[in-house]
Amino acid sequence: MAKIIPPGMCLLNSCVIGGFDHQLINEVRFHVSKIQIFEDHCKPYFTAQLVIETYDHNHEWFLYPTSEVFIDVTCPSSDPSFPAKRYAERFRVFSYESQQMPYGQQVTRIQHTISLIGQEFYNDRHNYVNQLDFNATATNIAKKIHDNFIQTTNGNLRVSVPSSGMIGSEQVPHKLINQKPFTAINQILSRATWTRYPSSAPVYFRNKQGYVMGPLQHIMESAAPALSFTEYPGAGNKWMQEFLGREKGYTMIQELKPLAPSGEASSGVRASEVGNLNQATAWVDMLNGSTKINDGNAAKILNKLGIKSSNPQANQKIQAMLAEAQRGRTGGLLFNVINELMQDRSVDKNGTGNFNVAQEAFVTALTYSDKYWVTVPGQGGHQVTCGDKITVNFIKPQDSRPKNVTKRLYVARLIHTIEFTRGDERVPTGEQAKTDIYGVAWG
Fold first, then answer.
1. Least confident of 97-101, 106-110, 158-162, 277-281
2. Quick one: which of 247, 248, 250, 253 has its CA closest to 81?
């Protein structure tokens, strides 16, 4: 009979720091206690935290700032229809903290908490951009900067949709003088427009396939669901027969946490009465939990865009976005994808079309869409990356009958966490591998 592998099991294939691979603690290298890897659609690099234990100051051989770190793990599967996915990443040591651990023998055991960051961060730090550009699209200029200064072995840059219009001319070229590469890229993307996607709102980030650049609206609308996760309340006796060691167990939702709204209700003040929010396109009334659309200002947006008469397709998209905003419930202040788009929304876009106004409508829709943290076993979580969509299925009560709910979430952030065996054994096998997925309801 084939061995049953439970959800959350993880094997450490390799962990190399400064050229030294991990070994068991009694062989005097280092033991890996915990790994956390962070993927974020707001950053063109990954970050991580690594916790290790060493004996007798062995870390002096390999642990120092900018030391290269290679991590390679696998969450195995016993279901042939759901094969295991290897997860391997390279980082640099950014910083670390060390503390001595109590130990009864005549040796010193030290625990090190190491902050890791992708090579892209240092490529940005150690370079400057000086160039003149003319008669080129914003995405072409940004891609050239990425290819010349940022590109690593982590994959190529994919421009999802080339931007519209040209930047700079032979008489008045666009100048980049002594700019850091990330700053230069984001400055260029702030001016980018897309005729098909007037909301613009460009993003530039890294995922497991490589690097992504383009309008967020297109990425969110075009992404196909990568995987489906389901919550099974009260699985009970069915667990052993239907879930353990099978795809159902590897894609089971362990926790589903909607993001909490802001604390306005405790103050007794309605959101619409704070500041000048009556001039806003939409707001959330925290006292009664409803989202309110300011119809007058929404109409102004549509009138300014002139989309009712000149662009039916854009009109349909904007109306759909505002409808999405009206259905939402919370602002998602815990982690707001809108405030970290790595570009300045105040920059005036080139050309006609009121791109800035359309961008604000898109921002409104995203701000009030539902947002969730979804916790799943490592077997399922390692098959998802930023820019994907996932489907979540759960049950909510409705009158006397439960109602099945399905939502499609755009994946904006992931936290992969692996805790390895503790105690005297210190073996490189994790039993609590999980992925926390931050998703925004869209589509």
1. 277-281
2. 247
Q: Which carries the bigger pLDDT value, residue 435 or residue 246?
A: 435
We report the CATH number of the domain holding residue 35 as 2.30.300
Tokens coding 242: 């239907």
pLDDT digits (tens, 9 = 90+) for 374-410: 999 999 999 999 999 999 998 887 766 778 889 999 9
| Containing structural domain, residue 295 | 263-329+331-369
Examine residue 251 and state whether it is found in any structural domain, yes or no. Answer: no
Mean pLDDT of 285-300: 47
CA separation for the pair 162, 203 (Å, rounded): 13
Quick one: how far is CA 406 from the chain centroid?
Answer: 21
Which among 143, 149, 147, 157 has a CA at the least distance from the CA of 192?
A: 143
Count CB neighbours of 416 within 10 A: 25
* Sheet of strand 210-215: strand arrangement: 157-159, 210-215, 202-207
User: What is the Cα–Cα distance from 392 to 441, expressed in whole angstroms?
Assistant: 10
Question: Could you tell me the pLDDT band of residue 195, with boundaries at 50, 70 and 90?
Answer: confident
| Spatial separation of the C-alpha atoms in residues 199 and 322, rounded to whole Å | 12
Query: For residue 406, is it within any domain?
Result: no
294: DSSP letter: -
Verdict on whether the full-model pTM lies above 0.85: no
Q: Could you tell me if 324 and 365 are in contact, meaning their C-beta atoms sit under 8 angstroms apart? A: yes
CA angle, 234 as apex, 228 and 237 as ends, to 5°? 105
Structure tokens at 421: 């065996």
230 within domain boundaries: no
Which residue has better confidence, 207 or 358? 207
- Do 53 and 74 contact (CB within 8 A), yes or no? no
For residues 286 and 265, the answer to whether their CB atoms sit within 8 Å is: yes
Q: Indicate the angle between helix axes 312-327 and 355-367, nearest 10 degrees.
A: 30
